[in-house]
């Protein structure tokens, strides 16, 4: 029997996988099919999945190569290509969980109003022992896509891949996930794209449980990684201002500057020059882009000092 909802799990880490399946097996509405795409790792996902064969409609496929290591968006796409004729896609993960009424709430939402292309769940953050440690920022009933971008880029809301369900035909028509290196910003740009016409509708009631653990919170402060991330962010912010003209050059410049300032303790002037040139020199030409670039490069040593002083004063250094 085919159901309208596909839940897709790109699988790489086995540690919490059984808990993901526990939360799916506990759903009060089982009208979904689970698709698990194993990303070229030796971990025995199949044995764990087999224990749930009688309680979760499931398709498991093992890929030979670890595509996610070099092209995470590509791994998402090939896992989505596993699905059948489902109308709705929920890209989930191998370590997060759902409260038991999430699928039921999705169908109840469709019964009330199925006009949106993108639906969202509010999120609670859990630790390694499944204890709720924090509630993520709550969304309004409907959020405008431009407002979503501005709020996310100013860090006033949280957003995780696993809290969204999207309409398949709209996703395909608009070109699937936006491609950025390391998939950094790919989900955010895609949700904005999918929600541009009608907004992002939040499903009331049960929550998605996003896991914060030692498996996903280790910061990477190696210079090469930070240089790469700053360059990706330059591409992402360029995408925001080009694809959402109302975002505005000044807002995009401000958010780019925030990220540059954030990295000042870790990166020297010459190490940020490429990312700064990438953003402020992008086409179409940014208003006063050359001047902004010159100013930031001129005062960069001072920015590093200001960052240190600000964090010393706040007790964070």
What would you say about this model in short?
The protein has 317 residues and is α/β, with parallel strands linked by helices. It contains 11 helices and 10 strands.
Question: Could you walk me through the main structural features you see in this protein, from its secondary elements to its overall organization?
Answer:
With 317 residues, the protein is of the alpha/beta class. The chain folds into 2 domains: 5-211, Spore Coat Polysaccharide Biosynthesis Protein SpsA, Chain A, CATH 3.90.550.10; 223-314. The protein has 11 helices and 10 strands. The chain has helices at 17-25, 45-50, 72-80, 102-112, 145-153, 168-173, 186-195, 223-243, 249-263, 269-280, 289-314, and strands at residues 5-11, 33-39, 58-63, 88-91, 97-98, 118-126, 132-135, 142-143, 164-167, 200-211. Strands 1, 2, 3, 4, 5, 6, 7, 8, 9 and 10 form a 10-stranded mixed β-sheet that branches. A hairpin with a 5-residue loop joins strand 6 and strand 7. It is globular. The mean pLDDT is 94. This is Glycosyltransferase family 2 protein. It comes from Candidatus Amulumruptor caecigallinarius. InterPro entries: Nucleotide-diphossugar_trans (IPR029044).
């Amino acid at each position: 029997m085919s159901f309208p909802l596909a839940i897709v799990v790109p699988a790489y880490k086995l540690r919490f996988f059984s808990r993901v399946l526990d939360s799916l097996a506990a759903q009060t509405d089982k009208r979904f099919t689970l698709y698990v795409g194993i990303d070229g790792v030796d971990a025995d996902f199949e044995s764990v999945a087999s224990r749930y064969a009688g309680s979760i409609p499931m398709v498991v496929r093992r890929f030979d190569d670890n595509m996610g290591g070099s092209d995470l968006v590509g791994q998402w796409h090939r896992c989505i290509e596993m699905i059948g004729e489902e109308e709705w896609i929920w890209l989930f993960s191998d370590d997060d969980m759902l409260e038991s009424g999430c699928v039921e709430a999705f169908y109840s939402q469709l019964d009330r109003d199925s006009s949106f292309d993108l639906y969202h769940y509010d999120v609670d953050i859990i630790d390694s022992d499944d204890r709720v440690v924090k509630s993520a920022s709550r969304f309004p009933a409907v959020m405008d896509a431009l407002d979503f971008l501005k709020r996310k880029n100013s860090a006033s809301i949280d957003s995780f891949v696993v809290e969204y369900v999207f309409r398949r035909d709209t996703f395909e028509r608009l070109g699937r996930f936006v491609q950025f290196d390391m998939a950094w910003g790919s989900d955010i740009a895609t949700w904005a794209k999918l929600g541009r016409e009608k907004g992002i509708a939040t499903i009331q009631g049960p929550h998605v449980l996003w896991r914060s653990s030692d498996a996903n919170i280790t910061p990477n402060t190696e210079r090469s990684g930070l240089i790469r991330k700053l360059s990706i962010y330059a591409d992402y912010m360029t995408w925001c201002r080009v694809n959402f003209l109302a975002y505005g050059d000044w807002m995009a410049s401000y958010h780019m500057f925030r990220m540059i300032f954030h990295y000042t303790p870790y990166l020297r002037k010459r190490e940020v020059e490429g990312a700064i040139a990438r953003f402020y020199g992008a086409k179409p030409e940014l208003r006063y882009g050359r001047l902004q670039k010159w100013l930031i490069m001129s005062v960069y040593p001072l920015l590093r000092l200001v960052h240190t002083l600000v964090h010393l004063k706040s007790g964070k250094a």
